[in-house]
Design goal:
Layout lengths: L3 H14 L3 H4 L12 E6 L3 H11 L5 E7 L9 E6 L6 H15 L6 E7 L2 H4 L9 H14 L3 H9 L8 H6 L3 E7 L22 H10 L6 H11 L18 E6 L1 H14 L3 E4 L8 H17 L1 H14 L16 E7 L13 H13 L5 E7 L11 E4 L3 H7 L4 H6 L3 H7 L3 E2 L10 E7 L1
Parallel strand pairs: 1-2, 1-4, 2-3, 4-5, 5-6, 7-8
Antiparallel strand pairs: 8-12, 9-10, 9-12, 10-11
Helix pairs in contact: 1-11, 7-9, 9-10, 12-13, 12-14, 14-17
């Protein structure tokens, strides 16, 4: 193969294109109601989703969506507001308050179309009574650095919010609510995507407290008081499954990581490379998953029984998820495709996100293996808080880093994967893609 990097980038582009709202929304909107139609939404894909709705909607339309700074696109009838992510700001708080008021003003003759994608939790930043925006900012920053999973983080966010955890749909009752979702969470649970503003919530105040305790988060005091008051029954719980207020509502899943991996697999086959999807919902510490996938890739490069045993071991360890038992060894040329959302426990002062940290862990474990290249990138175009979507690893990545004066081991210890890949010119910079089905990873074995 003449250009492994070009193929890897083509696989990523195919994955992103598979989650484009302009392709996914046409033909899937409900009929117009007797009354008003209001569009609200939040997330990195919310603006592009709103554009797609405007193009397809036959009648009057109004509304407001909030997206991350730089992710907006002009709409004609739906107002687009930009706010901070992943730590909320005052713009997100104001937008969430206005969205809640729009929902509260609806009647049984009206329709609320809710456009939800990853990033909505931070963008819908309306604190519950007694909790301040500053409190939410502190908790968000601490949780994001703790290594907590997105499900754990969102269980806390729901119980500190006036709008998440189903409260937006409750406010809109008795209007009908139709929610369109682009999933960025492992397992595609609608109640976890953007903390489920229109979806009944299975978590509790007590579970939110347990998450803070699990990661040794001891404040702010107002947050702990709020959660304890909810646990004691002094504050009403989030609406739970079975609530009759949701009986007429509808959820429509537009795109998931599975869809993105399927599109990338098709592109790989067209290039004569066998795709093996090893899980669309992989979690865990990013660098550790990278190391585990490196070991699997090296075994696959050997082929035969070594590859088969390694794949079975990867499944047993939870670093690969397959739909059934494995009986045949995968043969190169092969690409291992995966999605999901890893975590990074931050102990250093470097720059980077979970995709570049995954790749640096993988590169160190590969130790310049000549047959393996890889790409990892976030489908929203932003890896963590930097300007890159992700990066690529080639057999000479570590050597080029050392020639540039960067110690790869020290970079990983400092959580400075961004610095290493920037030094060797292997960052992937796409700008905002305005969709989001989370991490995309491709490990190519030749």
């Amino acid at each position: 193969m003449d250009d492994p990097q070009a193929l890897l980038r083509a696989l990523f582009d195919a994955a992103v294109a598979a989650a484009d709202p302009a392709r996914l929304l046409p033909g899937r909107l409900p009929p117009p109601p007797a009354g008003r139609t209001v569009v609200v939404g939040a997330g990195k894909a919310a603006a592009s989703m709103a554009v797609a709705v405007e193009r397809e909607w036959p009648g009057p339309l109004e509304g407001l969506i909030v997206t991350r700074y730089g992710h907006g696109v002009p709409c004609e009838r739906v107002e687009v507001v930009e706010a901070a992510h992943p730590v909320p700001d005052a713009a997100g708080r104001a937008a969430a308050g206005r969205i809640l008021e729009l929902a509260r003003g609806l009647s049984a003759d009206d329709l609320l179309i809710c456009l939800i994608s990853g990033g909505g939790s931070a963008l819908l930043a309306l604190p519950a009574p007694g909790v301040t925006l500053g409190d939410k900012q502190i908790v968000n920053r601490t949780l994001l650095r703790s290594g907590a999973t997105i499900t754990e983080i969102n269980s806390v966010r729901k119980h500190l919010s006036a709008v998440k955890g189903g409260r937006l749909a409750t406010a809109a009752h008795p209007a009908r609510v139709v929610t369109y979702l682009i999933s960025d969470v492992p397992g595609d649970d609608p109640s976890v995507i953007a903390s489920g503003p229109t979806v009944p919530d299975r978590t509790t105040f007590g579970e939110a407290l347990e998450v803070l305790a699990r990661y040794d988060i001891e404040g702010p005091a107002t947050v702990l008081r709020h959660l304890r008051a909810g646990m004691a029954g002094e504050i009403e719980e989030t609406p739970k499954p079975g609530d009759r207020a949701y009986a007429a509502d509808q959820l429509v899943m537009l795109a998931t990581a599975t869809d993105a991996l399927r599109a990338a697999a098709g592109r790989a086959r067209a290039a004569g490379v066998t795709p093996l999807a090893i899980g669309d919902d992989l979690e865990g510490e990013a660098r550790d998953l990278g190391g585990a996938h490196a070991a699997l890739a090296i075994a696959c490069a050997r082929g035969g029984e070594a590859a088969l045993v390694a794949l079975r071991e990867a499944v047993a360890r939870g670093v690969a998820h397959l739909p059934g038992p494995v009986f045949f060894a995968p043969q190169a040329p092969l690409v291992l495709l995966s999605g999901g959302e890893t975590t990074v426990t931050v102990s250093g002062s470097g720059r980077g996100g979970r995709d570049t940290e995954y790749l640096l862990g993988l590169a160190l474990a590969l130790d310049s293996h000549p047959a393996v290249s890889a790409l990892a990138a976030d489908t929203d175009g932003i890896d963590g808080s930097e300007n890159n979507a992700g990066a690529v690893v080639t057999p000479d990545t570590l050597e080029r880093a050392r020639q540039a004066g960067v110690d790869p081991v020290a970079a990983l210890a400092a959580n400075d994967a961004y610095g290493l890949f920037a030094a060797v010119g292997d960052l992937i910079v796409t700008g905002p893609t305005r969709t989001n089905v989370n991490d995309f990873r491709a490990v190519l074995i030749l």
